[in-house]
């Protein structure tokens, strides 16, 4: 069944599916396609999930908590999130407190109980990708603000120290007007650079 009414606003996103039950994995892949996303790949074990994630660089991973092999979905999710910083949504038929507690400690972006309803899956994926992209964008904006602020601090202090020294020299009569003119021109140039940095800071703060 196609869910053509779903119109993903993030349909450039790639989704990694990690599920060891073939029928469920196929249903998830169909749903992901129907929602307008790309499927980065399918994995049935934790190690394969990690390898595929590193290879395809997905935007989000749907990971079943219970997987075949030595590594369960929670451990795989920890490794994938740690290496790639991508959001994870857990899938499980089990909702016992111990499993839920382990899963929550990995800071997932969602937790869906099987059988998974397509509309719930769609909403959870959209929300997770949007929140993660917003988080990454905000982190980048803060880093930019910090970098610009650091650029401003040193020149401003230099101009301040230079002008204080200039005033002191004038008061003591140890500097002629030609020297004053040279220093003032240099400080004007430095202040122009500071003004350019301030414009950059302003654009960063108020950019859409």
TrEMBL record:
Pfam family, one: Response_reg
Gene3D superfamilies in UniProt: 3.40.50.2300
Organismal lineage: Archaea, Methanobacteriati, Methanobacteriota, Stenosarchaea group, Methanomicrobia
Name under which the protein is recorded: Response regulator
Ranges of residues in domain Response regulatory: 14-129
BP GO terms, sorted: regulation of DNA-templated transcription
UniProt superkingdom: Archaea
Modification type 4-aspartylphosphate: residues: 64
Keywords in alphabetical order: DNA-binding, Phosphoprotein, Transcription, Transcription regulation, Two-component regulatory system
SMART domains the record matches: REC
GO cellular component: cytosol; protein-DNA complex
Alphabetical list of SUPFAM superfamilies matching this protein: CheY-like
CDD domains: REC_DC-like (cd17534)
Entry keyword annotation includes Transcription: yes
Molecular function GO labels: phosphorelay response regulator activity; transcription cis-regulatory region binding
